[in-house]
Design a protein that fits this description.
Layout lengths: L1 H15 L9 H8 L7 H5 L28 E17 L2 E21 L6 E12 L2 E9 L5 H8 L2 H9 L4 E2 L5 E2 L6 E25 L2 E23 L22 E24 L4 E8 L3 E15 L4 E3 L3 E10 L3 E10 L2 E11 L4 E5 L2 H14 L2 E12 L5 E10 L12 E11 L4 E17 L7 E18 L1
Antiparallel strand pairs: 1-2, 1-21, 2-3, 3-7, 4-7, 5-6, 7-8, 8-9, 9-10, 9-11, 10-14, 11-12, 11-13, 13-16, 14-15, 15-17, 17-18, 18-19, 19-20, 20-21
Amino acid sequence: MKNLLTLAFVCLTIICSSNINLAQNASDALRLSEPGIISGARSLGMGNAYTALSNDLSASVFNPAGFALNKKMELDVTFNSNTFKNNSTLFDQVTASSSDQTNFSQFGLILPVPTVQGSLVFALGFNQLQDFNRSVQFNGYNAGSNSYVQDLLQFGSNNELDMLYALGLTYLDGNNVDQTNINGKLNQSGNITQQGRLNNWFLSGSMEIEQDIFAGVTIDILSGNYKKNFDYWEQDLRNNYQGILLDATDTRTKGFKSFNINTITDWDISGWDAKLGILAKVDEQFNLGATIQFPKTFTIKEGYSVQARTVFENNPFSSAPVYDPVEYDVTTPYEFTIGASFSQNIITVSADAKLIDYSSMQFTNGFDSQSRSDENNYIKNNFRSVINLNGGVELLIPRSHFAIRGGFMYMPSAYKDDPSEFDKKFVTAGVGYQSTKNMSINFAYAYGWWQDIGDNYGANLSRTYQDIKTQNVVLSMKYNF
């Protein structure tokens, strides 16, 4: 009993005095840098190819110059529902997971100002820019001679080595060096859930600077939240460690059964950004548009907590839960977009191309300067420039109040040398109904698919291969005064 209390005290002391915060990495910067697909129902139905069309509240996202096309005061409201499905394969075993999220995603007013000639329009409101709804589950038997425990023993910090020792997973040899009798052959399983959203409160202004040429600007105040819960298990389901002492000097480490570690990452997000846009009506049928999205500047207040436990034949060991806060800043890349639209009679077609250099993402403040420099160098060496493509079409049904829409989106992977399977692809469809002279209702659906991988530790030692499908359903209502 005395030994057990001593071990528990050592475990508590070591972990509570350790800085166990998970290092911030490139995936955190990418999460904030990738454009989301959420928008108004008309724009989403047309594949978000909206730079040359932006004449509703979605202009705040795509091209603020489009606000100048509005002649009446307008109120817009939008709702979004997202479903994320992931079939994950680990050691030839497939595990399915899914998650759903429904949000109020857009609200705002467009306010034209009377002018003698030309136009001057202001707009203000709220947008949900991104939905962080994600999930992955995995469960497979790793027959190899590797494990998360062994990886921590080889590459972990002193604090992590102390944690393994306190949980009975390692021992000290005659040279006072940490060793383990764990040698792989364990079932590995886990569950990763991600939730949250990135929002903006915007103020836009647009005017006709020359006949049929419009310019606009949007200033955004960014806010949001993100939470990731990772529960990971290694279990001896085949009794490979039955009767074995992990520490020959401690009988309580006999018959290893399982190791579990739970980590929770919780963000509070704040920041700001700006967008400039121009739109030209070349003639009654043809529009051209272009925008510059300036880098978003984010401050992340992160809380990171961890708790681990082991179970042996007759004894469990647990670490005390630890919470470790940190604050840091992230700057996203510039985004340069050009677009064109063509309308004739009952049909409108549009297309956009967006250039993003993901290698220019940066951590600009927070944690230690050497780690920040290392991570920024990793970003420069492993990320690339991409061109996102969007296309869409809208058909007005003759002698009716209905319009039907379709579109596509193509978003290449930000990582160098990724195969095309990792590129995000979406097809979209939508319908609009002009119920009265001033009231309209629009509905859109987007289906996306791509593949991804995830390493539980090391490189390709315990890797999940993920087949991802997403669905977004958007409903927008618009009223002109």
